Amino acid sequence: MRRREPRRKRMVFGAGTPFVAVGLPSRPLRDAYHQLITWSWSRTLGAFAAAYLVLNTLFALGYLGCGPGAIANARPGSFQDAWFFAFETMATIGYGQMYPVGLAANLLTVVQALLGLGGLAVATGLLFAKFARPTARVLFSEVAVVTTFDGVPSLLFRMANARANQIAEAQLKVVLLRDEITAEGSDVRRAHDLALVRDRSLVFSLTWLAVHQITPESPLHGATAESLAAQDAALVVSLTGIDEHLGQTVHARYVWPGRAIRFGHRFVDVFREDEDGTSLVDYTKFHDVVAEAPVHSPLPNPNPNPNPNPNP
Question: How many CA atoms lie within 13 A of 221 on its CB side?
């Protein structure tokens, strides 16, 4: 007997390299709610519309199968009349000239009416949950840069709150993913936490420049654009906070592949003053970077005197 081939599922983590998972158990009914919540609005509404049309068509065929006269005042054998009768039953909007006749047609009407009421309840709850789900609109810079910041080679990226609100108690976590080889010679995908100069913000309302200093203890120490590309590296950032209006936790995530980390570049300043002295944040330049001198190993300590006491 031929063995059934394991189920394959294509998966992508952020902007990383896609891979295929083999042998995962399929649970379409158990995961239906999660899928519909995470789908886009167009896809969710399209799925509901398709299910509605398919069910109405099946019940219309069922009414036709009940024989002539099962639907009063319907044209004999008319699929169109049967379909519109099924639509009225599914929507529970009441009948006009057409109504069920006979035991089979009435039983089928009962089943469809119950299905219509249950489907309406599920769709209402699901769409409300999808609409009311708290989300964050955070704008991430399209690239991250490696440049000298405060005299130390650093990895920088910036974010902006795209809503006219404040995210309280915002917390930022950054992880570097890359392929490595263990001491035993096995290929592994490792995650390295990157410490930030400031990983918390009491109130995140405008912009936030995140800075990771590339010291000898940093996982990025000695890294180059070529080494990151060879290791299929990716930079993953996760932002969590509390929406001040909803009082609920919101989350945003972004992934930069290794090719989106620009060495020897810096961000263009987005703050400027208008002619009348008004402070402006120019988001049209939010993703702009300019080239500068390349950054290699960490620079020497700007304060070469290790003794903090100037008068020993």
Answer: 11
Residues 201, 208: contact at Cβ < 8 Å?
yes
- The position carrying tokens 């999808």 is 130
Closest CA to 210 of 245, 164, 256, 278: 256
Kindly give, in sequence order, each residue whose CB lies less than 8 Å from that of residue 171, ignoring residues fewer than 6 positions away. Answer: 199, 200, 239, 240, 241
The values of phi and psi at residue 152, to 5°, are -125, 130
Half-sphere exposure of 194 (CA within 13 A, CB side): 26
Confirm if 160 and 137 have CB atoms less than 8 A apart: no
Q: In whole angstroms, give the CA distance from residue 176 to residue 234.
A: 6
Measure the CA–CA gap between 81 and 127, rounded to whole angstroms. Answer: 31
Give the Cα separation of 113 and 133 in Å (integer). 30
Give the span between the Cα atoms of 10 and 32, in whole angstroms.
18
Q: How many whole angstroms separate alpha carbon 253 and alpha carbon 237?
A: 6
CA dihedral (35, 36, 41, 47) in degrees, to 10, reads 110
pLDDT in tens, 173-221: 999 999 998 888 888 999 999 999 999 999 888 889 999 999 999 999 9
Q: Around Cβ 261, how many Cβ atoms within 10 Å?
A: 24
pTM for this predicted structure: 0.69
Q: Give the single-character DSSP code of 237.
A: E
For 76-114, give the DSSP string: TT-HHHHHHHHHHHHHT---SS--B-SHHHHHHHHHHHH
Amino acid identity, position 79: F
Type of residue numbered 233 = A
Q: Are 218 and 159 in contact (CB under 8 A)?
A: no
